[in-house]
UniProtKB/TrEMBL annotation:
<feature type="domain" description="Peptidase M16 N-terminal">
    <location>
        <begin position="15"/>
        <end position="162"/>
    </location>
</feature>
<dbReference type="InterPro" id="IPR011765">
    <property type="entry name" value="Pept_M16_N"/>
</dbReference>
<comment type="similarity">
    <text>Belongs to the peptidase M16 family.</text>
</comment>
<dbReference type="Pfam" id="PF05193">
    <property type="entry name" value="Peptidase_M16_C"/>
</dbReference>
<dbReference type="InterPro" id="IPR007863">
    <property type="entry name" value="Peptidase_M16_C"/>
</dbReference>
<dbReference type="GO" id="GO:0046872">
    <property type="term" value="F:metal ion binding"/>
</dbReference>
<dbReference type="Pfam" id="PF00675">
    <property type="entry name" value="Peptidase_M16"/>
</dbReference>
<dbReference type="InterPro" id="IPR050361">
    <property type="entry name" value="MPP/UQCRC_Complex"/>
</dbReference>
<feature type="domain" description="Peptidase M16 C-terminal">
    <location>
        <begin position="168"/>
        <end position="343"/>
    </location>
</feature>
<protein>
    <submittedName>
        <fullName>Insulinase family protein</fullName>
    </submittedName>
</protein>
<dbReference type="InterPro" id="IPR011249">
    <property type="entry name" value="Metalloenz_LuxS/M16"/>
</dbReference>
Length: 410
């Protein structure tokens, strides 16, 4: 990634911008260091509910006006919630950038949480929850978090529970924001053809009157992992399985080597080891992949597949066999070179998305104070040795370290 610029306002809000001259679309958003792990036990689902409520009314706009503001000029307004982040973002033609900036500021800082809208949105979220529960390949991945991070906020479902969502009132949102919103822990990020000076000028116009808010929130670190094997019967036609364990945190030097190892094992390429061994060779699955998520204090490896109930044991055995190979057989020089080239190519293609680039800029500056260039990341990838990957496999992928969650047809 070529040059980007950062400007810090007196209230602590950081503005990060990358100018891309060949685009007519302006992508921008607020990324906040607030997520579902910051909820109190009785607040499960509140961060995600706030994400919904931000669109339901501000001090000067009703829901209809918020939704129409960018749609009428062909733009898009959206949001998402994760375990550690909430983001409100938009995409518009460059000439409407100021309009989107003002609207994003309004919904981020001036939501009023109307009681009538809370009641309506409660029903929407309960329907979202029901739809998600009807999709076992999605539900099992989230429930696996609860298996690995048992008793810790990272194990809680981002959507919350039916009981918690049914009880939230206006004061709950105000209390959550009062406890968690901090101007030095949020970033306004943008990628467009606009010069940095123009973005800073607009930031000063719309963000200077936001008061400085500094909260010293301490996140509870995750400790005390105990591997588990859990099987749940459900009214489904296919068996679903997730296998995994905690992994390296965001700032760990082993993060990029492990990311490469995960990519080799079950990344998006059709030539991943799991896809070749389980789908292509034996035809046991339609989808099999592995994912590596990083958090500020830990990480999570999760391998997912769905198969016939009678093939569950065999498929699980094949996955374990591939993990054993990574622990016991060092990659040859050609295999290592190929794995590096594949990962670097995937990362370069991902950066072609200006929307994804905008999100990455915001999250990286928020978490690390900077965003690494592709060349910096490539240098780290190129320095990885085969014995590094084997050492990491033996550290993380030990069979006795793995948890398993099965959904089986009842």
């Amino acid at each position: 990634m070529p040059d980007y610029h950062i400007h810090t306002l007196p209230n602590g809000i950081r503005v990060v911008h990358k100018q891309v001259l060949h685009t007519k679309i302006a992508h921008s958003g607020f990324v906040m260091d607030i997520g579902s792990r910051d909820e109190l036990p009785q607040e499960q689902g509140l961060a995600h509910f706030w994400e919904h409520m931000a669109f339901k009314g501000t001090q000067k706009r009703k829901s209809f006006h918020i939704l129409n503001r960018l749609e009428t000029v062909g733009g898009e307004l959206n949001a998402y919630t994760t375990k550690e982040k909430i983001c409100f973002y938009s995409s518009v033609l460059d000439k409407h950038f100021e309009k989107s900036f003002e609207l994003l500021t309004d919904i981020t800082f001036r939501s009023v949480f109307p009681e009538k809208e809370i009641e309506k949105e409660r029903g929407v979220i309960l329907e979202e929850m029901a739809m998600y529960l009807d999709t076992p390949e999605e539900a099992i991945v989230d429930e696996f978090d609860a298996v690995v991070f048992d008793g810790h906020p990272l194990g809680n479902n981002i959507l919350g529970t039916k009981e918690s969502v049914s009880g939230f009132q206006k004061q709950d949102f105000l209390d959550f924001l009062d406890r968690n919103l901090s101007t030095d822990a949020l970033v306004f990020c943008s990628v467009s053809n606009l010069p940095f000076e123009k973005v800073v000028k607009l930031a000063e116009k719309y963000l200077s009157d936001i008061p400085s808010i500094k909260k010293h929130r301490e996140r509870v670190p995750f400790t005390g992992y105990t591997p588990k094997a859990v099987t749940i019967e459900k009214p489904i036609s296919q068996a679903h399985c997730v296998i995994g364990c905690p992994a390296y945190a965001l700032a760990d030097d082993r993060r990029i080597p492990f990311f490469m190892l995960n990519n080799l094992l079950g990344g998006p390429g059709m030539n991943s080891r799991l896809n070749l061994a389980v789908r292509e060779k034996h035809g046991l699955v339609y989808t099999i992949d592995s994912n590596y998520a990083t958090y500020i204090d830990t990480g999570l490896l999760s391998i997912y597949f769905g198969t016939e109930k009678k093939q569950l044991k065999r498929t699980t055995s094949l996955v374990m066999k591939e993990l054993k190979k990574l622990r016991e057989k060092q990659l040859g020089s050609l295999q290592l070179h190929t794995a590096k080239e594949q990962l670097m190519g995937q990362l370069a293609m991902a950066e072609e998305s200006n929307m994804g680039l905008m999100m990455m800029l915001g999250k990286s500056v928020l978490d690390q104070g900077k965003a690494e260039s592709l060349n910096e990341i490539f240098d780290k990838i190129k320095s990885i040795e085969a014995h590094d990957l084997m050492d990491i496999a033996n550290d993380v992928l030990r069979e006795e370290n793995l948890s398993i969650l099965n959904y089986v047809p009842s």
